[in-house]
Design a protein that fits this description.
alpha+beta; 6-stranded mixed beta sheet; 17 strands; flat
């Protein structure tokens, strides 16, 4: 049995990894104050960002769905990998050689996904090399006829699968991959009767399909030869690493510009993505052998940072029947975006690849610039199905188009579309207005659903209810305790270990916060060390781990480093001062109850009062 990764290496990898960089590969993060970042949660659908990341603490937490953890748990949940594989992936990222107990390597089940990814990458390298072979002339000719040179092929990692039943299979076996591994990766197909395997892609131009982090997870292959009886495009089948409903071709190249520009262009094919990128539209992506769906929207919303409504999603559709169906499907999901949605249709029905080939890069850029709002496009599509020269046709068209206008989520836009629909139909605007109002009041059963959570499956039963930050009362005493704990957990070095040590020996009103205080007290000596939050969490009951995580990640009010340092120190001082005031009140009461004849006790209480006042004065002077 293979050994486990040494704990010291696990901690070293975590210390060297910036959690914001890793999460930033999946989520568009924005500043949420000093040392804090936020974005749309990747674990549930939301309109406003409630997912917070604190790089200094090394933790993330969603205040919407409650998901939280460190960089390892994030990768485990996002990519469905084991803990050991998450460590191994990050170790490779930071360039650290891992060591295993008993000197052994990773267990086979830990490396299964890694082996599939390695097999895909080895295949991608093989295909790229084959593109330069004499047998790939047909592939190079195909690219050249579409305006793609060798540099473009290299940029997108395009390769060629030789017309052979076993050339790739033999190559991968020579690299140490087993038949089981290359079969599981979808690189080969099994012969009937189970008598061996053969190469899945043969005599085809091959595009590598990568996940958002740039790892090759599958392939799309284009038919080139007349004797190829297969489909025009053949993709990798569903595998443990490739799920076509969740993958967008080109997203690994486009994600940075999508996040920066708040725009994404959704095209229909691999060559369209290439044409757009080469023309300067570097936010283009495409689906991989499937229609644009809910899972694609979830991915794009995270990358867009789709919470403000300022973003743009631009769809390009072919004018044929398949393209029109795709447009209707996209419109059916439009409400799931906070961003504005648009449609761009090229003149003469050219797709971006053909448009670039015939009219140049500038024509592709003009195509995207000439985009029309999705609602306007759909209204025109609906009206095109009716004969508007007849009264019956106009009435039927109005009935069909009114729900489209009624479905516009921004009420301020509806009057404009009412006027536009009235103009297109040549009918009175009041008639259109009544039809739209009726459509809003009495939506059809088949109308689009209200956006809902994508993860609304029954929750797994929890052994113990987790206490949350939102359950705390809002009285001043509890607020002070909450804010002080947040400051201590998030910025211990600014407050100072000595000040924290004093603050955690004060009395607390709220019992749950008092338990967190005690956990800080027993670990305060390591407050300035990496992994301190983990130690604090380990000291509290399971029911309070969520509360500790939320306290460690909830945003603080101050925005600048200078103001933040002052704030966290002041809040700790306020907590200590409150406790000193409590002590003073108790001593004054005791003094009143003490018989003056009991001189020794009376003097002792007075001395304690003087000490408390001196400590309060010293506290104010230091702050």
């Amino acid at each position: 049995m293979a050994g486990l990764i040494k704990q010291s290496d696990i901690e070293e990898v975590k210390a060297r990894t910036n959690i914001a960089d890793v999460i930033g590969d999946y989520v568009s993060l924005k500043s949420a104050g000093v040392g804090s970042m936020k974005g749309l949660c990747p674990f549930h659908d939301e309109r406003s960002p409630s997912f917070h990341v604190r790089p200094q603490v090394g933790f993330y937490h969603c205040f919407g769905c409650g998901e939280s953890g460190d960089v390892y748990s994030f990768l485990q949940k996002m990519d469905h990998v084991s803990f050991s594989e998450a460590v191994e992936r990050l170790a490779a990222r930071v360039g650290l050689q891992l060591h295993y107990e008993d000197g052994q390597g990773a267990a086979p089940d830990h490396t299964n996904r890694a082996r599939l990814l390695a097999a895909n990458q080895a295949a991608a390298d093989f295909f790229v090399e084959q593109l330069g072979s004499p047998g790939a002339e047909v592939g190079r000719q195909f690219l050249g006829e579409r305006g793609f040179d060798a540099a473009a092929a290299e940029r997108f990692g395009i390769g060629f699968a030789p017309k052979s039943w076993d050339e790739l299979t033999n190559h991968l076996r020579s690299k140490g991959f087993s038949t089981e591994e290359i079969t599981l990766a979808g690189l080969v197909s099994s012969r009937e009767g189970g008598s061996g395997v053969y190469d899945r892609f043969r005599g085809r131009l091959v595009w590598p399909i990568r996940d958002i982090t740039g790892q090759t997870i599958g392939f799309g292959a284009r038919k080139l030869l007349d004797d190829d009886k297969g489909p025009k495009y053949l993709n990798t089948p569903e595998t443990p690493v490739y799920h076509k409903a969740q993958v967008l071709y080109g997203l690994d190249l486009a994600k940075r510009d999508i996040s920066r520009s708040h725009q994404v262009v959704v095209v229909e094919g691999y060559t369209d993505v290439m044409a757009c990128h080469l023309a300067g539209i570097t936010t283009a992506v495409a689906t991989c052998g499937t229609s644009f769906g809910v899972d694609h929207i979830k991915v794009l919303r995270r990358v867009l940072g789709d919470d403000s409504g300022i973003g743009e999603v631009v769809f390009t559709f072919d004018p044929d029947a398949a393209g029109q169906k795709a447009a209707v499907r996209a419109f059916g999901e439009e409400q799931r975006f906070a961003a504005q949605t648009f449609v761009a249709v090229a003149p003469e029905g050219l797709d971006p690849c053909d448009l670039r080939l015939k009219r140049g890069d500038d024509a592709v850029r003009r195509l995207i610039d000439s985009k029309k709002p999705m609602f306007e496009f759909m209204i025109r599509q609906v009206l095109s199905q009716y004969n508007l020269d007849t009264v019956e046709g106009r009435i039927s068209a109005l009935r069909a188009a009114a729900p489209v206008v009624g479905g516009i989520r921004d009420p301020s836009l509806r009057p404009g579309y009412v006027r536009e629909l009235a103009r297109m139909l040549g009918v009175d605007m009041s008639e259109v207005s009544r039809a739209v109002s009726s459509a809003i009041s009495h939506p059809k059963a088949e109308a689009r659903e209200t956006p809902r959570r994508y993860d609304d499956q029954p929750a797994e039963p929890q052994p113990e209810k987790q206490f949350s930050l939102v359950e705390l009362p809002s009285d001043p005493a509890t607020r002070l305790e909450r804010d002080a704990l947040m400051a201590m957990l998030q910025h211990p070095t600014q407050i100072g270990v000595d000040a924290i040590g004093r603050a955690v020996h004060t009395n607390f009103v709220h019992p749950s916060l008092a338990i967190v205080r005690d956990a800080i007290a027993v670990t305060v000596a390591s407050a300035a060390e990496p992994g301190w939050l983990d130690r604090v969490i380990a000291e509290v009951p399971d029911s309070l781990t969520k509360l500790v995580t939320e306290l460690a990640l909830a945003p603080l009010p101050e925005r600048t480093e200078r103001d933040l340092t002052r704030y966290v120190k002041d809040i700790a001082v306020a907590l200590i001062d409150r406790d000193l005031l409590r002590q003073k009140a108790e001593l004054l009461g005791r003094l009143q109850r003490t018989d003056t004849s009991d001189r020794e006790v009376y003097v002792a209480v007075q001395r304690e009062l003087v000490r408390v006042e001196a400590e309060r004065r010293n506290l104010r002077e230091q702050s």
